[in-house]
UniProtKB/TrEMBL annotation:
The keyword Oxidoreductase applies. Belongs to the zinc-containing alcohol dehydrogenase family. It comes from Rhodanobacter caeni. The lineage of its organism: Bacteria, Pseudomonadati, Pseudomonadota, Gammaproteobacteria, Lysobacterales. PROSITE patterns: ADH_ZINC, D_2_HYDROXYACID_DH_1. InterPro entries: ADH-like_C, ADH-like_N, ADH_Zn_CS, CAD-like, D-isomer_DH_CS1, ER, GroES-like_sf, NAD(P)-bd_dom_sf. This is NAD(P)-dependent alcohol dehydrogenase. Its cofactor is Zn(2+). It holds the Pfam family ADH_N. Residues 13-333 form the Enoyl reductase (ER) domain.
Length: 338
């Protein structure tokens, strides 16, 4: 028998409290990972507050884990004790459905979210299936790598899924936790990048992340001025926008791709799509292979999320910092070495 000690939410909206949970024997295909760093994603906050109605309590949030393998189940493959690994949004999937067997494990109907009925990474240790325990490449910066494992793959996945070319013009709506990583990835991919932000103070920072142009996302005239120019428009915000004006920034065959959890429906006038053969799509994170490719690309191009560090013991202060919209741009919790 074995236990995990972490920072748990006992009910919706409650501050996290340190608690220990008996987690039983390690499953044969499971890996136990000692947590060194864990990023805080906006989804952790949404789940703590049960904004999506599917949280199960008590649970330990945290799904951007950087750590070391400390125990391996008898059937856990491809990993060794002490190896540096990362775990993102998904901790397990069935491995036998068509999606899993096609390499689209992130679309598995039986997948287990790292923080969905499963204890996450604001803890000393966590467990995941070996296939979802991703080896970290040499050269990756461990302290800032956590946010790549959820946010990073979320913004890079459309480039992989839709074969976005380096000659593409890419717009990123929202320069926050996701959006600042999207700008860095799109610039490293070779694209011409336009950042859309409602915060004038972020314009210079967006250019620092690699944006070639910055457009005020509430300025109808500025948006109209770039109509018909973008091949990919990545939506990373979770608030309503002037969607039709933004759709009209797309070039013929352009795509608006949604990765921000906008809760209000997005109205889509049919003629905005039809006349120029535009697409609208969305995606969650990515498969284990997508995540490994993303990490290799990030290591090669030295793409580091811009992070603020908090000790794990100050997790509640860190969550307030995020909830207040003050995070620039991601927060990482650090465990004190034992
Ligand atoms: Zn996340
Ligand atoms: Zn499956």
């Amino acid at each position: 028998m074995s236990s995990i000690t972490g920072w748990a939410a006992s009910a919706a909206g409650q501050p996290l409290e340190r608690a220990t949970f008996d987690v039983g024997e390690l499953g044969v295909e499971e890996v136990e990972v000692a947590v060194d760093y864990c990023g805080i994603c906006h989804s952790d906050l949404s789940m703590i507050n049960n904004e999506w109605g599917n949280a199960r309590y008590p649970f330990i949030p945290g799904h951007e884990v950087v750590g070391r393998v400390v125990a391996l189940g008898a059937q856990a493959k491809g990993l060794s004790i002490g190896q540096r690994v990362g775990i993102g949004w998904t901790a397990d999937s069935c491995m036998h459905c068509h999606q899993c067997l096609s390499g689209d494990h992130h679309l598995c109907a039986e997948s287990v979210a790292t923080i969905g009925g499963h204890h996450g990474g604001f803890a000393d240790k966590l467990r995941a299936h070996w296939a979802w325990t991703i080896p970290l490449p040499e050269g990756i910066d461990l302290a800032s790598a956590g946010p790549l494992l959820c946010g990073g793959i979320t913004v890079l996945k459309p480039f992989l899924a839709y074969d976005i070319k380096p000659t593409a013009r890419v717009g990123v709506i929202g320069i926050g936790g996701l959006g600042h990583m999207a700008v860095k990835f799109a610039a490293a991919w070779g694209c011409e990048v336009t950042a859309f932000t409602s915060t004038a103070a972020k314009a210079d920072e967006a250019r620092g992340f690699g944006a070639h142009h910055v457009v005020a996302s509430r300025d109808a005239e500025a948006i109209a001025a770039i109509a018909g120019s973008l091949d990919l428009l990545l939506v990373t915000v979770n608030v309503p926008m002037d969607w039709n004006a933004l759709l009209n920034t797309l070039a013929p065959k352009g795509r608006m791709h949604v990765v921000g959890a906008v809760l209000e429906p997005i109205p889509v006038p049919a003629f905005s799509l039809i006349g120029r053969q535009r697409d609208i799509s969305g995606s969650p994170t990515g498969s284990p292979v997508d995540i490994a490719r993303m990490l290799d690309f990030a290591a090669r191009h030295d793409i580091r999320p811009q992070v603020e560090m908090f000790p794990m013991s100050q997790v509640n202060q860190a969550l307030h910092h995020l909830a207040d919209g003050k995070a620039r741009y991601r927060i990482v919790l650090q465990n004190t070495p034992a």
